[in-house]
Design goal:
Mean pLDDT of chain A: 93
Oligomer: heterodimer
CATH superfamily of the largest domain in chain A: Dihydropteroate synthase-like
Shape of chain A: globular
Strand order of the largest sheet of chain B: 8-7-6-5-4-3-10-9
CATH topology of the largest domain in chain A: TIM Barrel
Strand content of chain B: 5-15%
Bound molecules: cobalamin, iron/sulfur cluster
Distance between the termini of chain A: 71 Å
Low-confidence stretches of chain A: none
Radius of gyration of chain B: 18 Å
Structural class of chain B: alpha/beta
Largest sheet of chain A: 8 strands, parallel, barrel
CATH superfamily of chain B: Dihydropteroate synthase-like
Order of helices and strands of chain B: EEHEHHEHEHEHEHEHEHHEH
Largest sheet of chain B: 8 strands, parallel
Number of domains of chain A: 3
Strand order of the largest sheet of chain A: 3-6-7-8-9-10-11-12
């Protein structure tokens, strides 16, 4: 059920007191109707209004925050089934599993790795998201100790506490409950004490059940206990069931035909033999939190890259700020290489320029994030843009020569750029791999 | 467990690759691709469609191939038919995709060699074959004619047709009853347009596989993934101009920076991961054939597909 702004307005207190951050109750109602508002921001709502509004005005998939501080992350609050319809907003948290029966050093080293390891791709820092501590010992003290080991590293990364027994769970929470760890998990039998813990510590909670229908029932039960920060456990016995279930949840929550399924998805890949397969499926298809054994170097980079790909806004390629970027220590006589502000292009070219060891300037013009060929084809890279950018970034005072190297793929523009700017245009190679060679041979001043 | 997706009424058409003795060819298997009437994995009980196939890519002039493959595989790469045999028997591929890279040589005119290598590869393996013709429009017609003829009766998949360049492939495909790859640059409208062009000159829908162009992981893969989803979804909603099975090859995987510059100790692992993540994701987005170049990627994909497609065998419904 989708409520219109006016229907919502009727349920609001109409005080226009601005405490929700909106100027009037009506504008607040409009925000709620678009799925962007948060009903909790109005302190004067009565319980009845809250119940009616709760399920239909929150985003179709509940936003759930995990962890605190710099490394905290949020999942959910997605609006589309396919990324091309708009974009996906909240990449899944990928948590390395550690066990409470491991020696402390091993727990510590995985935790420290997640705390410090990062890969830089196209200018973005990629990291794993946290650790999941599993209770294999069955012993509350052992579990509590393991959580203590993670905490003692001082990495402050988000945690999942994986203990089915509420008594054990509570011992873990006593160690880290202030930091919004994710509680795994509530079942039909344990949901009451688990909800009580979630409430006491303000933690989000995963619910587990054997199929989607029962998961929906579980979220309603937890809602009745006052808990709405929930995730749905889709770690079914067969990995084969994951994509169908995840897709069904996404379709139904986006269409709001099953609001009880409107929560982010939890996937524990340690249950399956095919690690990479499970990771790929989770990332491609809607997972919010993924637990995995600590990954080897190859799977690590591939996993983080796939997550970056799937969660890049299709309408907005990752872009660089246009401008002049020195490579090495260039001077007045160093070459100037024109390229576009698509970050993939920039970083590809920059990589080759650095290894060529010829100091130079990269001259980045604003093609709205399009690659060279795409920008040429779309008319975004053209002589006026080059002329204006030369002015804007004061290239004329930066170098003493008047020669501009353009990408091989931009060769059709060379004459026009010369005419428009008065600079001599040299057409470089098409493939950035050949830039080094080209500069060594062709650049003489 | 899943119900079918709402609002879908279309169905992906079939394409048959390879011909067994019973079908007047010499292949040990043939495959019928397509048949899906819902998103990948959805509607499991009714419409899962064919299990994706893994094609292993080889070429007839390895100097144009990734050094990662040549150093892993050794001398084998200079014996094209033997390489095809290995693809089938050692690596366990479902298909072999032969690139005629020899045609890249400046002034290439050794046309008889094209006939020979196509025939030799067909003897080297019993698997259905994909042949990727020339890189030079001026010799297209001769090349496609040669490989089309050499594979007569075998129901090859011939590639690659593009918008400005499809007549020679299409002519050879139609003359010898092969199917063809229709490639467009990551754009649903261009994919549709090309299929319409092909139909206008007489190519049947059940002889076309869509290649939406697959960027490698980290290098444009996100666009490819989405365009595959769009094409598939449009087809399932009833657009018959897009209702063909898709083929995906993230063929630059082995030359991207992360792989090329990887520590030699783990370079093969990175190469395999790079191919695997893009190939499996392509299948998730709807591809029926995924292509790889590292031998070690093949069994991993096969295992994943077998598990996810409920234990089906290639060609089985
Ligand atoms: C992904 C992609 C898209 C994405 C956009 C991605 C982006 N951010 O640009 C999308 C889907 C949006 C797109 C759209 C279009 N695209 Co497009 N697209 C591609 C694709 C597949 C890859 C582009 C890419 O990411 N390249 C990677 C980057 C790193 O390459 P690059 O910027 O060129 O940089 C390299 C070199 O140029 C060189 N280099 C870069 N800078 C410099 C500088 C110097 C000095 C030197 C020496 C070298 C150098 O080094 C880099 C690495 O080698 C190409 C096909 C292809 N294989 O190139 C088609 C392609 C570029 N697109 C094409 C077209 C026609 C279009 C559209 C106009 C039509 C359409 N298909 O809808 C639209 C226009 C977009 C718009 N807004 O209007 C055509 C261009 C045809 C032509 N030759 O003119 C191509 C070639 C596809 C084709 N074969 O037809 N596209
Ligand atoms: S806080 Fe509540 S009562 Fe006050 S303006 Fe906002 S919606 Fe109206």
């Amino acid at each position: 059920m989708v409520l219109k702004a006016l229907d919502i307005y009727k349920l609001l207190p109409k005080k226009n007191c601005k405490e929700c951050g909106d100027p009037t109750c009506l504008t607040f109602a409009m925000k709620l109707a678009s799925g962007k508002g948060d009903i909790d921001k109005c302190p004067y709502l009565d319980l009845n209004a809250k119940n009616i509004l709760g399920a239909s005005t929150r985003p179709p998939i509940q936003l759930v925050k995990i962890g605190v501080g710099e490394r905290r992350f949020a999942v959910g609050e997605e609006f589309v089934v396919f990324r091309h319809e708009k974009t996906f907003y909240h990449p899944p948290g990928i948590m390395f599993q550690v066990s409470d029966i491991w020696p402390a050093e091993k727990i510590e080293s995985v935790t420290r790795r997640v705390g410090s390891e990062h890969f830089v791709r196209v200018g973005t820092d990629l990291t794993f998201s946290g650790v999941a501590i599993t209770n294999e010992s069955g012993d509350p003290d052992v579990f509590s100790k393991a959580v203590g080991v993670v905490e003692a590293t001082g990495t402050h990364i988000p945690e999942v506490l994986m203990a089915a027994d509420p008594v054990v769970q509570e011992e873990g929470l006593k160690k880290c409950g202030n930091f919004r760890p994710l509680i795994y998990s509530a079942t039909k039998d344990t949901y009451k004490p688990m909800c009580a813990l979630a409430k006491k510590f303000g933690s989000p909670l995963v619910v587990s059940a054997k199929d989607l229908e029962s998961l929906g029932e579980m979220t309603k039960l937890c809602n009745a206990e006052g808990i709405t920060d929930l995730l749905l456990d889709l770690s079914f016995p067969s990995l084969r069931d994951y994509v169908p279930a995840a897709t069904e949840i996404r379709q139904k929550s986006i269409s709001r035909s099953a609001p009880e399924l409107g929560y982010p998805i939890f996937l524990d890949t340690t249950r399956y033999e095919m690690q990479d397969t499970a990771l790929v499926l989770g990332i491609d298809k809607y997972a919010g939190v993924i637990v995995t054994p600590a990954l080897g170097p190859a799977s690590s980079v591939a996993t983080l890259t796939l997550r970056q790909n799937i969660y890049t806004d299709p309408q907005k390629p990752i872009q660089m700020n246009p401008g002049i970027y020195p490579v090495g220590n260039p001077g007045k006589e160093s070459p100037v290489l024109l390229t576009v502000n698509f970050s993939l292009t920039y970083f590809t070219v920059q990589g080759y320029l650095e290894s060529s060891r010829v100091p130079c300037y990269m001259f980045i013009v604003d093609t709205e994030g399009l690659s060279v060929l795409t920008a040429v084809a779309a008319g975004k890279l053209n002589e006026t843009l080059v002329r204006d950018s030369i002015k804007k970034f004061d290239l004329e005072n930066l170098v003493s020569h008047r020669r501009l190297i353009i990408p091989g793929y931009a060769s059709p523009l060379s004459g026009k750029i010369e005419e428009e700017t008065g600079w001599k245009v040299l057409v470089g190679p098409r493939d950035a791999a050949e830039i080094g060679d080209y500069l060594q041979k062709e650049w003489k001043i | 467990m899943a119900e079918n997706s709402p609002d879908l009424g279309g169905k992906i058409g079939y394409v048959v690759l390879g011909a067994t003795k019973a079908e007047d060819g010499t292949r040990s298997v043939s495959y019928r691709l397509g048949g899906e009437s819902d998103l990948p994995f959805i509607g499991m009980k009714t419409s899962l469609g064919s299990i994706p196939l893994v094609a292993f890519e080889i070429c007839d002039d390895p100097s144009y191939w990734s050094p990662i493959v040549t150093s892993y595989t050794g001398d084998l790469v200079s014996d094209t038919p033997e390489w095809a045999t290995a693809a089938e028997q050692q690596y366990g591929a479902d298909l072999v995709r032969l690139y005629l890279t020899s045609t890249k040589r400046r002034g290439f005119d050794d046309f008889p060699s094209i006939t020979k290598v196509t025939e030799d590869v067909l003897s080297g393996t019993g698997l259905p074959l994909v042949v990727e013709g020339s890189n030079e429009p001026a010799i297209d017609s001769e090349i496609f004619q040669r490989c089309g003829e050499a594979g007569q009766g075998e129901r090859l998949l011939l590639g690659t047709a593009e918008a400005g360049r499809y007549r020679s492939v299409a002519a050879a495909a139609m003359a010898y009853n092969h199917s063809m790859v229709a490639q467009s640059p990551i754009d649903i409208n261009l994919a549709k347009q090309l299929n319409i062009l092909l139909r206008e000159i007489g190519v049947k829908a059940d002889h076309i596989m869509i290649d939406p162009y697959t960027g490698s992981l980290g290098y444009g893969f996100e666009y490819s993934y989405s365009v595959m989803e769009r094409i598939r979804y449009a087809a399932l909603k009833g657009d018959t101009d897009l209702a063909m099975p898709m083929i995906a090859s993230a063929m630059d995987s082995l030359s991207v920076k992360e792989v090329r510059e990887a520590d030699p100790v783990i370079r093969d692992d990175i190469a395999v991961a790079w191919e695997f993540y893009a190939a499996l994701s392509s299948a998730v987005a709807g591809a029926s054939i995924v292509c790889v170049r590292h031998p070690k990627t093949v069994p991993l994909l096969k295992l994943a597909f077998r598990e996810l497609w409920a234990g089906k065998k290639p060609g089985e419904f």
